[in-house]
């Protein structure tokens, strides 16, 4: 079945440093979504990317969808302590129509 | 989020007992999902339902069962056949298939001893 791999598993940064997490799918995706889960909380939707090569920005967050629609990245500029949490990518399409396949997530810690 | 409720927040059971986790949504969403979350493994899909009275197995359905008799409700039963039931269980809903964002409930942390 479809697999979505996400790296790194953990990332520790100093406040103000940049952060990037990468997501790779074994199959071509129809769309990719990103979620954030704060410690002790539940995943919350951040954004969806649909088009090949698409780039979207939300303040300090930049999301990219690869040209082949098999990979994606989330980049945070100048991290803040409020950015701590686990970031998940989730892909849809191919053999997994009707559901999302989540990556393992990247746990981000930010040291003040 | 605000439109999905899961109860209870914490649940303790003895090995060999079946336990049912509740999930209710008032968002009028057609699709509902159950995920299991273990440390370092992300979210794994247990079961999902895109319409009332219909549901499909996810990636780790063994030892679990569900029903979808009402649009707003999608209870999950963890049976005694589930070998490692201790986990954080998350319910989600969406307007339809994988092209729609999913809204998650607060989760139920199940501990089986």
Which labels suit this protein?
heterodimer; A: 112 residues; mainly beta; six-stranded mixed sheet; 54% strand; B: 113 residues; 0% helix
General description of the model:
The complex is a heterodimer of chains A (112) and B (113). Chain A has 112 residues and is an all-beta fold. Chain A has no helices and 11 strands. In chain A, strands 2, 4, 5, 9, 10 and 11 form a 6-stranded mixed β-sheet that branches. Chain A has a 5-stranded antiparallel β-sheet with strand order 1-3-8-7-6, with no helix packed on it. Chain A is globular and about 40 Å long. Chain B has 113 residues and is mainly beta. Helix content of chain B is 0%, strand content 50%. Chain B is built from no helices and 11 strands. In chain B, strands 2, 4, 5, 6, 9, 10 and 11 form a 7-stranded mixed β-sheet that branches. A 4-stranded antiparallel β-sheet of chain B has the order 1-3-8-7, with no helix packed on it. Chain B is globular and about 35 Å long. In chain B, 39% of the residues are buried. The model of chain B has no long low-confidence stretch (mean pLDDT 93). The A-B interface holds A 1, 6, 9, 30-31, 33, 41-45, 48, 50, 88, 90-93, 96-105 and B 1, 31, 33, 35, 40-45, 48, 50, 56, 58-59, 90, 92, 97-99, 101-107.
- Biggest interface, which chains? A-B, 28 and 27 residues
How confident overall, as mean pLDDT of chain A?
94
State the helical fraction of chain A.
under 10%
Overall number of strands of chain A: 11
Radius of gyration of chain A: 13 Å
What's the helix count of chain A?
0
The whole-number mean of residue pLDDT values of chain B reads: 93
Strand composition percent of chain B: over 45%
Work out the strand percent of chain A.
over 45%
Quick one: biggest sheet of chain A? 6 strands, mixed
């Amino acid at each position: 079945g479809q697999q979505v791999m996400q790296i790194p598993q953990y990332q520790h940064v100093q406040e103000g440093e940049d952060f990037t997490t990468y997501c790779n799918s074994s199959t071509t995706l129809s769309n990719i979504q990103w979620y954030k889960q704060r410690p002790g909380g539940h995943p919350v939707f951040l954004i969806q990317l649909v088009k090949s090569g698409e780039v979207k920005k939300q303040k300090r967050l930049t999301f990219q969808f690869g040209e082949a629609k098999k990979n994606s990245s989330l980049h945070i500029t100048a991290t803040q302590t409020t950015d701590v949490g686990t970031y998940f990518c989730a892909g849809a399409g191919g053999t997994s129509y009707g559901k999302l396949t989540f990556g393992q997530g990247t746990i981000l810690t930010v040291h003040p | 989020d605000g439109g999905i409720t899961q109860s209870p927040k914490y649940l303790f059971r003895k090995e060999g007992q079946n336990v049912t986790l509740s999930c209710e949504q008032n968002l009028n969403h057609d699709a509902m999902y159950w995920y299991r979350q273990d440390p370092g493994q992300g979210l794994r899909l247990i079961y999902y339902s895109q319409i009332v009275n219909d549901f499909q197995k996810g990636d780790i359905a063994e030892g679990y069962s569900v029903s979808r008799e009402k649009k707003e409700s999608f209870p999950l039963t963890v049976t005694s056949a589930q070998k490692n039931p201790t986990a954080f269980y998350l319910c989600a809903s969406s307007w339809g298939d994988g092209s729609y964002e999913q809204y998650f409930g607060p989760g139920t942390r199940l501990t089986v001893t």
